[in-house]
Amino acid sequence: MNIRYKDHLILFNSTVRKALVKLNGLGLDAILFVINKDFKLIGSLTDGDIRRGLIKGHNINDEVQLFIQENPKYIKNELIDINEIIQLRKNRFKLIPIVDQDFKVINILNFRLVKSFIPVDVVIMAGGRGERLKPLTDEVPKPLLIVGDKTIIEHNIDRLISYGIFKYHITLGYLPDLIKNHLGDGKYKGISINYITEDKRMGTIGSVSKINNIENDYILLTNSDILTNINYEDFYLDCISKNADMSVVSIPYNVDIPYAVLSSKDDDDKICSFVEKPSYTYYSNGGIYLIKKSILNKIPKNKFYNSTDLMNLLIKENHNIISYKTSDYWLDIGKHQDFKKANNDIDRINFN
């Protein structure tokens, strides 16, 4: 959420003089959205609108409602269409008000600060003990280990925020209060954070069954110990275009064989072909998923359950579970050498 979106709001009966003062303080984002006393959107106002109004004979002590552009572009929070968002971005709109069902302005999308506006709830699994990273994790949970200039979990959250995702659920287990105290309620980042604390080990997805306030049709589930620059908008578009029940980020894993690989017939061991020093590419589970909200009721309540258990169930039931293959940067920070690599790589990763 744009934590300062109210700086762009002005009442319809405010003077143009007051509007000019507000516009002057907005710098590169110099546009105001005019509201009535109930916060309902009624128009927009720029320096150009004021100039044209003055030319018509109005003055700076008149009310802004005499100068506004009526029927501005807006986004309905309950009916977010990702393709509409992309089109607005392509048409070089800079700031778009977000309104609720009563047409009240509740946020402003700023394309200078975010790339998109993806309608998902994020679930970050942050409950693991990080055993393989001991002694670093003896007193600090793995998500709070520092990579570059901030914690691993903040790298993940900031990347997701850059795609206009503002609703977060974080599942906790090991040293939960340290993570809560570090991130708080998320307001300082303009997001909302809901915490779910495991009272026992629940696997890599079991604690999702304890979340009861998911708002969107999809959740984006991610492990907290991943460093990545994946394009989340493309991931989401691929998922909805294929009407997937679950989409799994898949990471290429290359295997080089240093010898010739022979093929032979089973009956007489006669060699029928061979390939000299072949290279094979396999795709591995990247620990990032998009899952339809309606699928979540398949996760058993209050039980140990892994994401791979859910995947196997969906395959067995013939649900539409797909692979999203990516060559974007991805690193699972599970071991000491991974942590060292993350800190070596961080300044070279393109997060744009």
Number of helices: 8
Work out the number of β strands: 19
Classification by helices and strands: alpha/beta
Oligomeric grouping of the chains: single chain
Residue windows where pLDDT falls under 50 for at least 5 positions: none
Could you estimate the helical fraction of the residues in percent?
Answer: 10-25%
Radius of gyration, in angstroms, nearest whole number: 25 Å
Biggest sheet architecture: 7 strands, mixed
SSE map:
Blueprint: E1 9-11, H1 16-24, E2 32-35, E3 41-45, H2 47-55, E4 75-76, H3 82-90, E5 95-99, E6 105-110, E7 120-126, E8 146-147, E9 150-151, H4 152-161, E10 167-172, H5 176-183, E11 192-197, E12 218-223, E13 226-228, H6 232-241, E14 246-256, E15 261-264, E16 271-275, E17 279-292, H7 307-316, E18 321-325, E19 330-332, H8 336-345
Parallel strand pairs: 1-2, 4-5, 7-10, 7-12, 10-11, 14-18
Antiparallel strand pairs: 2-3, 5-6, 8-9, 12-17, 13-19, 14-17, 15-16
Please characterize this protein's 3D structure.
With 352 residues, the chain is α/β, with parallel strands linked by helices. Helix content is 21%, strand content 28%. It has eight helices and 19 strands. The protein has helices at residues 16-24, 47-55, 82-90, 152-161, 176-183, 232-241, 307-316, 336-345; strands at 9-11, 32-35, 41-45, 75-76, 95-99, 105-110, 120-126, 146-147, 150-151, 167-172, 192-197, 218-223, 226-228, 246-256, 261-264, 271-275, 279-292, 321-325, 330-332. Strands 11-10-7-12-17-14-18 form a seven-stranded mixed sheet. A three-stranded mixed sheet has the order 1-2-3. It has a three-stranded mixed sheet with strand order 4-5-6, with no helix packed on it. The protein is elongated. 32% of the residues are buried.
